Structure formats: structure tokens, C-alpha cells
Amino acid sequence: MRSVEEKAQCFHYLHGIDILGADQDGQLLFACIHPDRQKLHANAPLMLKEMMGEMSRVDHPFFTFWTPDSCLFHVLTIRIESEKFILLLGPIGLTSPESTYDKLIPSKNRKELEYLGRLFYWLFVKEVSGIPRPVTYTITNTPSFHVIPEISLVNLYYEQEPVHITLEEYKRLKEKMQTGDASIVQSHLDAMSSFQEGVNRFELASGDVLRSAKNHFISTCAIVCQIAVESGVENEFARTLAYKLIVQAEDLSSRAEIVLLLKEMILQFTAAIKQFANPQYTSLVRDIIHYMHMHFFEKITLNEVADKFGKHPSYISNKINLETGLSFSDNLNEIRITESKRLLTASRKSIHAIAVAVGFDYQNHFSKVFKKITGVTPSQYRNKQRVTSSELLGK
Q1: How far apart are the C-alpha atoms of 44 and 50, rounded to whole Å?
Q2: Which positions of the chain have pLDDT values less than 70?
Q3: Backbone phi, psi, residue 184, to 5°
């Protein structure tokens, strides 16, 4: 159950949506809830009881419940060994002029609501191929301030420490990231003496240094992800990248490795801002760059992309070159090399396997492109990361 709680915490940090976990009898086991919304969950047992009554009618793992005031809950049933557990995501309000739900409840449009549901299902039931459509019901209970429990229903899994970054530091980091220049951001990170000190000094998991460092990563990733979205990076891409990085952080076994990945995470979001959010890019070029990000591991060709967007290849080529300063293939290679750097740092895959994974047919070609962009070979880059990690461990 610990891994389920950690995933719930990640989701809560990134999206600001509350998550409750309960056993098959409806008894609350954990809750990841924003402090301002704790009282909204005062009648959670009543709502959960009503939901479970509806869920018992069909054998299905995924449900959506609407309340009378246009709030939504996504609900999953999962099994761990022989026990069944229930996960409740919400409340989330449907954005609408007629909405009457409390202003503290986060609101989303219908597309965002569906996306959150799919992501929620994938995170906890990702071994199942395909995401089923949720069974939908309407319930009578609503999130309410009016029912006061005798004891607190909220047993937060994570410590309610503030995120240890000041408003001034946030503004400076955002300003540097919005330049889209990785060298400027790298210099800024190197100059931040508080960067590693914060991870070392502040405990976000009492008595567990590694868990504390991972919690720092999650909270910082949430901040940086939001900076990217506010700077124009496509929301679904930014959130998906954040999840990929958090999953990677959860697999690390030392604080030094997490600090390295934290810096790499900021650089990856900076690259995304550069490629997605350049105000000089037309919508066509932004859409093509987004397509590259989502399909870089495939055998993408200029002709294929031109056909997809209904334009002549020469027009696409000239448009991309004019707006980005790079050719179509150079833009694609930049994206592929960024992903390969992550794999070189976080995995033990061979360089050949990484080359294939990011879309190159041959290792020699991959190594040549990698050195052209980074100034070092893939092997040198990997070894440098290992040396830096060892140095951090010695501190």
C-alpha cells in the first residue's frame, strides 16, 4: 500500500487534486488533501458509502461520479495481493458559468477532466493494456463544509512542510528558464548555493533521508512543471514529462543521484519552453514541434510530417528553418539527444540500445550527432555524470 500512497502523493503534488484511499469497507486509509480543502472532505464517508453502493452493481474498475453542483470524482478499485482498495480522485469542478461548487475546488474543462481520469487510471493500473471508459453515475452528496466530524478524517501521508523555495528564487528561476537558454539556466543552478543545501537540510520525510530527497524532487518538479505550462508548454506534454521524471526519481537509490536528476529535470523543461513557447513561432511550427516531441522515437520524416499537416515538404522545411534557426532534422535530433541524456544518466542500457530507443538506426550516427550537440561522446557524458554523482556522495 506504501507505493500506492507515494503515487497518490505525486499526483496530488503535480495536479493539486485531492486523493483519498480507502479499504473495501470504506474506511479511510490515507488522504492527500490541500490544507485549505480539508473541511470539504468532512462528509467523505457518506459520499464514499453512496459511491460504493453504486459500484457494487457492476464488475468494473473505473467509475466517474457527478454531484448535483457539477463536481466530478474519478474512482478506481485496485487489488493488492488479495485485498481490494478504493482510490478517489476529486472533487474537480467542471468549468461552467452555471457552476455552484465551492471556489476552493479546482476546476477543469471536459477535455482536461477526461485526461486526468485516463492519467489516474494509467498511474495505478498501468499493467493493464488499454484504458476502459468509466462507468458514470450521479450521486446526491456534495463536498461540504457543513458536516463536522468528531475527529479529523485527514491523515496526510506527507508532512505539510512548505516548499522550500522563496518567491524571489521562484521568480529568478522562472526568468532564467523562460530564456530557453540551457547554459544560462545551468549557470544559475551552479550559482545557487541553497540548491543542494535545501535538499540536505530540510526533511520532508522524518527519519528517511532518501525519501525526503525524493519528496523534494516531487515538489520541485511540480513547481518547474507549472513554470513550463505558464510559459506556453502544452499542458499534457508538461504533465507527462513530469510523471516520467518522477518515476525515474523513485527508482534512484542515492540523494546525490536525485540532486543530479533535479538539475537535469529543470534543463529538460527549459528545453521544452524553448521549443514549445517561443513567441515568434507560428501555431503550425509549435504543432510540428509538439508532434516531434510525441513521436521522436519513431522513423519521422519531413515528407511524413508535411503530409500530416497538409503542407508541401519544402514549405515545412523553410518555415521551421526560418522560425527556429534549425533544420527539420536538427530540431528532431535536439529532442532525441535530450531524451538520450536522460537515459544515459538514469539507466544501465547500452549506448546502442539507447540510440535505437530515441530513434537512431545506428550507434555511430547517434554518437556523431550526440557529440555535435553536446561536445562530448555518449560514453564521456555518462562517465561525467557518474563522477559528479560520486563527488556529491562524498560531500
Answers
A1: 10
A2: 1-2, 126-130, 141-167, 192-207, 279, 386-395
A3: -65, -45
